[in-house]
Design a protein that fits this description.
233 residues; 12% strand; Rossmann fold; alpha/beta
């Protein structure tokens, strides 16, 4: 019998290859709107990633809504990159999100891992991602049947790492024993902090071997997704 009965998986950069999808979506955005700005695609993507990271941190700290995030990251990107000829932030967001769905793929090992774990444990997805995008990507990637529940912050009203997010998950799954649950994710600030706030064990998926410079305790740390099988068996 598995040590953990309930596994809560983060989506982006844990199961979804978000980095590749984001880069590919930006490439299409660049060709459509930015190739005549006189600035290179790698230079502009660097600015976009910085803007995106800053705005997502604002969202996860509860300072802005997901609707504001959608266009604010492009507004900030334009300012950082000093671009004046461009699509307005709302148009840019709509185009980019459509491309993000189209370019989505799973990380290597993700499909096999889900297939093996789904016969041992109850799997749920926990994500701060934009609801319309996450549902479309889950459908495109054909993994909906692997999960008992899909928990998306936009639909819950709380975002990771807020304890309210995990209280909602616990209540929905009718769980009262945290020792039966394992959270798996790549983000120290959202996933590991959220697990700590909720008193739940956490597995940090850290393929790049980053150093944990926070004071957050991590129950497990793995470099490859397949290592989760050793933990739950």
């Amino acid at each position: 019998m598995s040590l953990y009965k309930y596994l809560l998986f983060d989506a982006d950069d844990t199961l979804f290859d978000f980095s590749s999808a984001s880069h590919a979506a930006f490439h299409q955005f660049y060709k459509e709107f930015l190739d005549k700005t006189g600035k290179s695609e790698p230079e502009l993507y660097h600015y976009y990633k910085d803007a995106n990271m800053m705005v997502w941190e604002e969202f996860e700290q509860g300072y802005i809504s997901i609707e504001t995030l959608k266009f604010k990251r492009f507004d900030l990107f334009y300012k950082l990159a000093r671009i004046t000829t461009r699509a307005n932030p709302q148009e840019a967001s709509a185009f980019y999100l459509k491309q993000l769905i189209l370019q989505s793929t799973l990380l290597p090992q993700a499909t096999d891992l889900l297939n093996q774990l789904s016969v041992k444990c109850s799997l749920s997805l926990i994500t701060n991602g934009i609801a319309e995008v996450q549902h479309a990507r889950i459908q495109k990637l054909g993994i909906r049947s692997s999960f008992k529940h899909i928990f998306i912050s936009e639909e819950i009203g709380y975002s990771k790492p807020d304890k309210g997010f995990f209280d909602h998950v616990m209540n929905t799954l009718r769980l009262s024993e945290p020792a039966e649950i394992l959270i798996i994710g790549d983000s120290l600030k959202a996933d590991m902090a959220g697990a700590h706030n909720a008193g739940i064990d956490a597995c940090w998926y850290n393929p790049k071997g980053l150093v944990n410079e926070t004071s957050l305790p991590v129950t497990y740390e793995i470099r490859e997704l397949s290592q989760i099988l050793d933990i739950v068996n």
